[in-house]
Write the structure tokens for this entry.
Amino acid sequence: MNYRHIYHSGNFADVFKHCVLITLVRSLLKKDSPIFFLDTHAGIGKYDLTSELAQKTREYETGVARIYNLCSDIPAIQTYQNIIHATNAHSKTLRFYPGSPLIMRQLMRTQDHMILTELHQEDAKLLKRCFYHDKQVAVHLTNGYHGLKAFLPPKQRRGLILIDPPFEEKNEFEQIITGLQIALKRFPNGAYIIWYPIKAKDLIKIKNFYKKLKTILTTSKNIVNLELNSCGLVIINAPWQLELELKPVISWLGRTLAG
Ligand code: SAM
């Protein structure tokens, strides 16, 4: 495993994924009943953008840095910016970027719980440190796809599962389909959000991924597919009106981060 998310933290893909994730979580939080969160490929939780590794690529410059000081009247974007500012409350400028586990943790209520899985030994150690003594969060050093079997269904009736692999392996799309087949059997009503990169050389793979998705989603599920620049997201069992709520978010991101 060579992939380290620190090289990419806060880049365009992260901003896009995290703003959509926040829109989805906000929608689920409209009801009081407890929510179970599962982040299968969790990363390290908090990224220092001034670190040597982040500075090698400086990908955050065309992502979070572009919107750090902007204002927006879109609630999900405001929530995103509040979380970024809260993560940097003790530094004068943008220094830390919160990964998906920290973002979801900021949104969780006392009745909610979260399981995080991460396969990279060092990254899992850092992630554990982030949630040390947090009774609402459990961190496991394990394969996220195995977690889809081990941790589903949750005892809570409602859940959000984020599948955000590094796409280092050639068969990542196949692994997602196999994992989803297992997960949907065990927890058919969960909301699933899957991230994937859009590369010209992989367009056929992406087409096949969608074909296979359709075959495993036999019952009528509300599927939302979003694509912006080189990133794609699929949401399965999207809450009612999510698409409407996402429209201004996507168009704001498109306008603000383009170029
Ligand atoms: N979800 C994180 C976020 O938004 O902040 C970013 C995750 S990053 C794209 C992918 C992570 O998955 C990396 O930290 C990598 O070490 C980890 N990983 C790779 N293969 C894995 C697997 N089979 N199971 C769990 N984690 C894995």
Notes: The chain has a mean pLDDT of 95. The two ends are 32 Å apart (CA to CA). Residues 1, 3, 5, 17, 39-43, 99-100, 117-120, 123, 143-145, 164-166 surround S-adenosylmethionine (CB under 6 Å). Residues 81 and 133 are 26 Å apart (CA to CA).
